Amino acid sequence: MSESRGEAPIESLLAIMARLRSHTEGCPWDVAQTFATIAPYTVEEAYEVADAIERGDLADLKGELGDLLFQVIFHARMAEEAGVFDFDDVVRAIVDKMMRRHPHIFGGEPGNWEEIKARERDGKPSSGLLDDIPAAMPALTRATKLSKRAAGVGFVWPTISAVMEKLAEEVAELEVEIAANDRDRAADELGDMLFVCANIGRHLNIDPEAALAAANAKFTRRFRYIENALAQQGRNPRQASLAEMEALWVEAKTATMRS
Asked: Closest Cα partner for 69 from 16, 116, 123, 144?
């Protein structure tokens, strides 16, 4: 199928998706998919968009945004086949939401973003304060959102000092379980400690997910320095002692701070 002359690109993409899902002339793999099987690909494509942005590769970003849009089209097509909604309904829903949440731009009842979102939550069948924070969200990001939502109703450590005290408490509890060699309870305490770390980020207005991503990138740069230094000697990390690698790590810290 070729794109019809004068046909809008989005219409071409919708037609391609319909063809791929056709039980008579489509792709067997696409036909076999469900919301659940496609969901991991949707998440993966979102991460690839974020990666292109992080790398500053705008040419790659164009392609990755297309891949992410295709995921939206895929889910909308499956919903249309089930008679639930279609792509136009998806577009209408986001248009309505954006206009509703920006009354100062489009007119309507005054209110800030969080107040409007709270009213929307109150109108849903499930009205628990935390119910609409997706469970599949990256855990550190979800911890931040959970604590922020709870803080909005006053359930919060009042100061950063109080949070730091709680962190020290969780570290001590983790050490007890490590000493007891209780892996399950250590995992529980480690989770508590990470949740407190997310609260530290919220208090400092620092995104802990972004902070950890930066730490990951820093670790990668420094470890790569170790690998390169050893490669110049005809060796790799498996052939080096811990002391050698630690010495190169110290060098890497200075070298990467200059770069």
From this structure: 16
Rounded to 5 degrees, what angle do the CA atoms 120, 121, 126 make? 135
Q: What is the pLDDT of residue 3?
A: 47
Expressed in percent and rounded to 5, the helix, strand and coil fractions of the chain are: 75, 0, 25
On whether the pTM is more than 0.70, the answer is: no
Residue 118 Cα distances to 41, 101, 127, angstroms: 30, 11, 10
Dihedral sign for Cα atoms in the order 171, 176, 182, 184: negative
Tell me the C-alpha distance between 255 and 221, whole Å: 10
- Return the residue matching tokens 């939401």: 97
The 10s digit of each residue's pLDDT in 163-221 is: 999 999 999 999 999 999 999 999 999 999 999 999 999 999 999 999 998 999 999 99
**Lookup result for tokens 């009842």:** 109
